[in-house]
Description:
Shape: elongated
Order of helices and strands: HEEEEHEEH
Pfam family, one: CesT_Tir_1
Strand content: 25-35%
InterPro entries: Tir-like
Mean pLDDT: 95
Distance between the termini: 42 Å
Protein name: Molecular chaperone Tir
Amino acid sequence: MSTYYNKVKDYLLNLEFNIVKEDIAEELFVVENPEGGIANLIVDCEDPILIIEGVLFELNAEKPEVYKALLQKNREIVHGAFVLDESGKKVLFRDTLPLENLDQNELEATLNSLELLLSEYSEEIISYSKL
């Protein structure tokens, strides 16, 4: 286990995130913050980076207008971005941060960015998931 793992865990707990699952061997956490609308968010220590990733919705069909809207929204997201998984069907929120000099404020900024995205863009996300 790297020294980063415990540091990230402490940050998550300080930020009052619930650790739903913890995999010490893989050095990852699954966290939630129901008040912020965050569920099943993966926080993965992949030295030299921290990966923060969570599924937002699944696309039922290829919709160029949805892809375009998500890419345009990426420009407004403070930290992180919309991405597609390997199958091209799941839309995720993803951000990466360097572990070497990671501080709590950086992790908090990413998590706040996701919470803001979910609160401001939730109607659109729900409508895209129904297409």
